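#lab-general

N.A. 3:47 PM
ok so I finally got the sequence cleaned up, no stray characters, all 1480 residues accounted for. can someone with queue access submit it? mine expired

B.Y. 3:52 PM
send it over

N.A. 3:53 PM
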Amino acid sequence: MAQCVQSVQEFVQDSFVPMVAVLCSDEAERVTRKNNLNFAELLRPFCRLTSEGHIRDPNNQVQVVKNLRICVNNVSTSPNTASAALNPAQRRLLNEVVLSCQSPEGAATNVITAGHYDLNFSDQSLKASLPWYSAWRETLLDVSSSNNYTATTPWFETYRENFLHSMPASEHEFLNHYLACLLVVSSSEAVPVEQFLKLSQEQHRIQHSGDYTNPKWFIPNTLKYYVLLHDVNEGNEQRADTVYEDMKQRYGSQGCYLLKVNSRTLSAEDDEQIPDPWSQYLHRNNLHNQDTLDEVAPTENSPAVENNISAAEEDAHHPTDNADEVSTSLDCHPLQLDTVSTEGSLHALSAVNAQPKKSPRDPEGLVGGGGAGSHGACLTLNDHDHIRQFIQEFTFRGLLPHIEKNIRQLNDQLVSRKGLSRSLFTATKKWFGGGKAPEKSISEPKSTCGLLYPPEAPELQIRKMADLCFLVQHYELAYNCYHTAKKDFLSDQAMLYAAGALEMAAVAAFLQAGAPRPYPAHYMDTAIQTYRDVCKNMVLAERCALFSAEILKSQGKYSEAAALLIKMTSEDSDLRSALLLEQAGHCFINMRNPMVRKFAFHMILAGHRFSKAGQRRHALRCYCQAMQVYKERGWSLAEDHINFTIGRQSFTLRQPENAVTAFREILTNDSRQTATQQGAFLREYLYVYKSVIGGNEVSLPELPLPCIHSSATRVYFGHERRLAEGEKQAATHVSLDQEYDQDSAAMWCHLEEQLVASANRGINPANFQPTQCCLNSQTDNLRYPQAVVEEPIIVEVVFRNPLKVPLALSNLSLLWRFTEEGVSPSEETAEESAITNEETLAQGMTQKDDIVTTEVIPDFPMSPEETKTARLRLLPHRTGQLNIVGVVYNLAEAADGETAPNTEGQQTLELMVVRGRQELKIQGPRLNVTKEDKMEVRHGPDHRLDPVITPPMPLMEVFFLQFPTALLCGEIRKAYVEFCNVSCVALRGLRVVSTHPDFFTFGSQTSSPLTPLSPTSAENCSAYKTKAAPCQPGSVASETLVSPKEFSRPSGVMEIPIEGGTLQPGESIQLPLWLRGPDQEGVHEINFLFYYESTEKGNKISHRVLRHSVFICASRSLSVQASACRSSVPSHHSMEDKGSGGTLVFIDVENINTSEAGVREFHIVQVSSSSRHWRLHKCINPAKDKDCKLTSRERAKLCFRATRCKPPQATSDAVGKYTFTDLNLGNEQIISSCTPCGDFFFRGCPTPDPVASAGISSRSRSHGPPVDAASDITNIVKKCNELDLNLIVIWKAYVVEDNKQLILEGQLHVALQTIGKEASSLTPKEEAQEMVLLKFKSELPPPVALPSAEMSQLIKTNLHYPETYTHPFVKESLCVVPVTLSLSNCSLAQVDVIIELRQKSTSPECAEVHSSFTWVGQTQYKLQLKPQEVLCLTLQACFLQAGVYNLNTPRVFAKPAQQGAMCETSQQTASPALIIINNA
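B.Y. 4:20 PM
back already:
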């Protein structure tokens, strides 16, 4: 905002000062020209009086005149009539003074905070203003001790000062009329008195002849003051004194003065530095001198670029005959840009910028008639004092007395007229005209502004007296006179005179000391409205508005001041409108509640008008200040407009860097502009960018398009895998096409931990880090990734085109910096030794392929608003530290249609292609560990783009042959896997781990080479190892003893058997791989992780891994359910059991296949068992078929006898070994103890630890006291019912596929653990838990449940009796039959047994039966059976009549012998024992 160094009162006082004219003789002019000055310029720095003056008013009261300044000008008789508008020369003057006064670049920035906004004003000075209240806070440093500052606008102050000084003298006021005239004659004249006489006559002629309209004189008898100018170096001082004495005699001592100057010679030594007080006045004065010049075309000295006054503005300033004519610029939008060319493109600006920029006028070189050199070179400080004393003498002894005398005379005239009646006076004027020009009708007020009074009119005498009082600071009397004159003028409808009186009455009221009356702002408003609307005089209206705005601002009425300034904007002057709009904007932020957005809006309007006025620097400044308000606050369209204008203005002002920055903002933000507008923005940006770069492309600058999602950047280390070759299927490994999954990454990490632990004797190293081949925003990037030399690095960069126009990117490549291994890590050394490819990419030189080969994508088009990924490759050839810095590319706007084939079009298209770069800056994850991390926002490092290049490592590729995608549940399939070493380093330690270790096997250590090793020879062969063995009825199963160590793998990790343990570079090996379909139907994801190491030690990378994921679709095959029960056959009937007892095994097989795979039927070809204690003995199936065929949804039941293993096989050598027994139902016997059957059995059936189970067996056999009674009982009970028999059901399926019959084979496992419990090959589906109601009351603890189910099988009972018995009941009524009860202790502990023969049933049926049958003799026994002891009791059954009876009525109770507190448990009885009693 405009802030004077003076107060507002001083500013207004200095705007209206007494005017003094100067007439010089030629000789006097020559004397002053020695100092490069004329006489008026010589006096100008000393025109302010340093002491007070005094005058007496008409009431004889002394009035003090303080700080008075006078204005001294040369007499100019050029015709300069007062007009309603400034002439072109005056407009050019104002334009140039505003242009020459700019905000200094690089000055300290002042920050003003208003509400939520921080506004920066880069101004040279600050000035204290009224308080800004609580909404503002002081944020300026080391400026002043005061807390209230505001930004200054010195260009407005300069404009205002020059505008007020350039105002022509008008008829309706006398403030700028000359009061006195200085007649200056040199003492070296021959006859100085004659020269004085000539000058006096000249002045009289100018004033009274009527030939000259200018200059205008205040009163007829102008004060003439005679000055004798004496050159001390040249003139005769004595003669000068003599002439001066003569002058005093002739003109009086009050009317003349001897001024001595030039006490210093030009040849004097220049050691003494004399101050130059003239420089600050001369530039302005010289510009004023141009008022006399006619309008000429702009010369080369004028700034061609910045000061282009448009033709529309020039025409608008010319007075036209039609007052209602409006400039064509009104048709433009207020915010429309001031375009140079009709196309709205910056291409046309190149013609403007072709000429070198001209600097503003040098004030030193503009001194009229003067050459180079300083001013006042012949003047000493004493001469300065002489001039200052002369001004004081002239003012106090000449000018002020003259004004005082005229005030008295005018006052006397007015007082003498007051005797007349006002009404009579007015009537006289109406009848006789009062000597005035004919008055126009009141009904035409708009034209009455042309009413002119004659000089002697009494209304003008009042105005003259008011102006004289005002000039000598007698504001009270001046106000009264203005007020009186105002009434007279209004009554005469002389609107121009009335407006002038209103204006000065308001100013005089404001300047009165002590403020006896408030400032009448309505006077000013009326005056402005009259000047503007009635008189059509914008110059006077503008002057009035300038004064009123300053007065209102000084009173804190910023809102009223802003409204006043905005009203004064119009289309006739862009410069005035721009300056006033800017001041209005500053008023808005100085209000009590700052209106920041209004400030910004009016700064935009001001910038637009500055641009139209050719003031491009000021326009740029206004837009930049407004941008602070709109930036990043959601005003996207406003931001685009401002940035576009800033870019254009900066480019025009030869500030291409700022232009590029502004255009970048338009393109970076998410724009809501139309596609056409965005295309125009892009073309402008490319043109400006191209002009900035020129031929200097050593350092590539940043490009704003397209946007790069740096955090989404992914980096892949490793070789690109070969795809499937023929029947070969390559391992999937890791690729950029796969989505990252956190759970999956944790699973792979767990598998790798297993592999590393297996390779390191079961222990994971402390510095173990999981292998990460693909890095993204979710991986752990805190450490530097390790890449291998001669292996590519692929960087996937995500580009987004935010515009609605297509982009064409070309020659896209990565920018990197490389530091070789062995360089010291200090930053300075690293910077010097680092190798980069920026220069080669910028200048198109040969790539540095010996260090890193950089892939270039020639064309990369992007559609509107498209997000697209680019995969860029680097191939390092040396070890060291590689830093991927960014991307480099050519940017152009994609052509919408076909380009014209002419050469010019191609050249234009090439010009619009620019080359630049964008850095890849990735922000690491936020830290949240320490307290400081949680209090502040800290981010950790992200090193995914900073790989360490390590020495060569082995690289393995894995291929699978004949690998299926669909299997039946339990199906066995043979495939082949090929391992290839594609590197130049040998590898060793090949291992594999999987999430499904039961899915595959490479074979056991005992696998014989009977299985074919090549895929071609294995087409029709079985995956099983078989031998011919025709099925014989009643044949006993063959047995094999196998140790599980031959099959099991610790922690599921398998070492892959390769010859020699190493794979040399370039070698490959094929191994067979057996697969078994999962037991559950559905799609299964199966993951393999292969592990290998380098044969060389000491590498940074200890090992490498290779991933493979497959999806297997498992279909239903068979469902096998098995159960076991104890055989009721007495031991002496079963010779094979040798007293150990037998078990019956029932196997239910159901075909649950839904024929989806074209399966016709299943054949059960063999049932095998595997156990350490039991074995399948023989098949006792009633049907004597060779095998069992099952079509869809059919079931079959097979029955087998199982016996315990033979005692010799349970020796200490065979502890923990498994007995495999095979019962084939066909002509081939499959050796279940070999690969793959045995492998999948041990992988599919979890087996208990053989050492632990052996320990339990031996401990339970011992008769020593148990360590823990409760656990001992549990073991006893479990062992009693334990079976631990694993069944392997081997099947073949016949499938029709492509008119060919295929034979599939597979195996299902059933683990029979307990007698009496059914087991199934299908795992039961988990059912969802039912909702349980909340229970708030505590329940009683449940009673201790006795193991009744297990305890009821301690004793096995058998009854031996004759099936039929014939007894003559006629002879003997009682029939007694001997019955033997066999008791077998099934447990390994002593058992107490109670046998109860009495019947306790009370039902009538039982009573009827038992009435004819009862046990006789001893009816209750208490026995103790040793472990596995068999005891026989002879009982007596007594029958009363013939019939069929069930003898199985004895109740047997048993408990372990050493459990005294436990009750006996009823034992399960066998099936009914029926006896037939015949009557003889």
